[in-house]
Amino acid sequence: MRSTRVAQSAVIAAVVAATGVPLAASPAYAAPMTVPYLCSRDVNGSPVILHYQRGYDVTAPASVEPGEKFTVTFDNEPINPLTNFNTEVWDVAVSFELPANARYVGHTLTGGSNLGNSRQSVEVRGNRITLHATGPFKAGEDHDLPNLNVELVAPERGELVTAPAGTSAEDPGFRWTAQNPDTHEVFDLPCYPEKPAELSKTVVG
Question: Which of 33, 106, 161, 172 has its CA 20 to 30 A from that of 195?
Answer without folding.
Answer: 106
